[in-house]
Amino acid sequence: MLDGEVPKEGVFGNASALAVTGNNKLCGGISHLHLPPCPVEHMKLAKHHNYRLIVVIVSVVVFLLAILLIVSIYLMRKRTKKPFSNSPTTDQLAMVSYQDIYQATDGFSATNLIGSGGFGSVYKGILMSEDKVIVVKVLNLEKKGAHKSFITECNALKNIRHRNLVKILTCCSSIDYKGQEFKALIFEYMKNGSLEQWLHLRTGNVEHPRTLDLNQRLNIIIDVACALHYLHHECEQLVLHCDLKPSNVLIDEDIVAHVSDFGIARLVSSVDSISPKDTSTIGIKGTVGYAPPEYGMGSEVSTHGDMYSFGMLILEMLTGRRPTDEMFIDGQNLRMYVEISFPNDVMEILDPHIVPRDEEATI
Known about the structure:
Layout: E1 3-6, E2 25-28, H1 39-81, H2 98-104, E3 113-117, E4 120-127, E5 132-139, H3 146-157, E6 168-175, E7 181-188, H4 195-199, H5 214-234, E8 238-240, E9 249-251, E10 257-259, E11 266-268, H6 303-319, H7 334-339, H8 346-349, H9 357-362
Parallel strand pairs: 1-2
Antiparallel strand pairs: 3-4, 4-5, 5-7, 6-7, 8-11, 9-10
Helix pairs in contact: 5-6
């Protein structure tokens, strides 16, 4: 009995010349012999098939990894190149129309006028589309620097979020009914007005018994401190407020303070290799009494300037005296007023609303 592989060449290529009957161990040969395939050949085919499968799988994996690498590099470059721009852009804010704001404020009615500032007027209104009470800051574009104030405030507020910063809802850059340019910022409405109105009872009309006890004042001081810490140390880009004062601190219904009005804020890029002490002061002016004296002499703005304003705000909250109070004459100021009274005569300079007369007598 024969066994093994039958060749396909020569005489073995003629099926009629061969007789393989009874030789069950033969394999291979031409197809006319009807012999089973040899095991070695079958294994070669199986190995070849597996090799092709492995090549396909490896190729797909390498391709997917390459795509993932390219996408990752693109996203990283996009993130690193993304600037906190000072350019005139408000793209990240959803805009409302002039008509929406006109209707919300009842045609900018005097009854809805909350107050006016350096670059415009502030109105209370109801945004019909969302049934939401809002505050609308309308800029006076005839005043020099108003356009820049609008862009600065948009850029300062569009990317920052903190519980102690006023939240900007949207903005409007349009044309009014007279065909004139119109720009406005829309904020959350703070029911309890500004800290200025709480400290100085004769200013403003807000719906509350406008007195703050010592505990409430300390909580507001902490709120403002948290806001400044966020602006100076936790933002993607350092923000210098440059105009911190009681009228720019708003109080919500829970007596939580929110720092507002970033109209002259300074944005300092973290990739410009510029320290906070090396920024320019061109066009930046705070409020007399709250801005540090060196700003008036052309010094550079810095976080130290904001902290000076914060210190003056604290002194005003505790004494009830403005830095520009008429009592400060002949070189006197609020800081000196507190300094000469500390520590023995502190009770004499405290705001009487902090310590009622009967408690003061007990102390």
